[in-house]
Design brief:
alpha+beta, At1g16640 B3 domain, 3 helices, about 25% strand, transcription, DNA binding, DNA-binding
């Protein structure tokens, strides 16, 4: 966790915390303060199971929302900053990504690349997949 966040919450944050994903699953994850960087909280117990379950990879991003003192909501995004929607595969119990259309919400990060209050460029994939159908 970022040092500024860790410094503010570590005295009052429960251990373990409960991390809930956008598909409604909750995970109990314990944390420690990192020895080499005493101002950073690191998830440990339960984190490997979470990581492997959601097939996290280098380049994925996660948007955490903290609700004191115990709860985190998290949305997982791919390398293009589009949210990955997970659903149950009833045949084998795995969690493949579901395309983000139909009844699913499409979410993405939009990084402000320049100081231009008149325009915001949306991600290429979103524009390509949904641009023609926007009202």
């Amino acid at each position: 966790m970022p040092a500024p966040f860790s410094n503010v919450v570590r005295e009052n944050m429960s251990n373990p915390v409960e991390v809930s994903t956008t598909n409604g699953q909750s995970w109990s994850i314990s944390w420690v303060v990192e020895e080499e960087h005493p101002h950073r909280i690191v998830f440990i117990g339960g984190w490997r199971a979470f990581y492997e379950h959601y097939h996290l990879r280098i380049g994925n991003t996660m948007l955490f929302s903290y609700h004191q003192p115990k709860f985190f909501n998290v949305a997982i995004h791919d390398t293009r900053y589009c949210e990955i929607n997970y659903g149950r595969n009833l045949r084998n119990g795995s969690l493949p990504a579901i395309p983000a259309h139909g009844n699913y919400t499409v979410q993405f990060f939009a990084i402000i690349p320049v100081n231009d209050p008149d325009t915001l460029m949306l991600p290429l994939r979103f524009s390509r997949d949904y641009g023609r159908s926007l009202p």
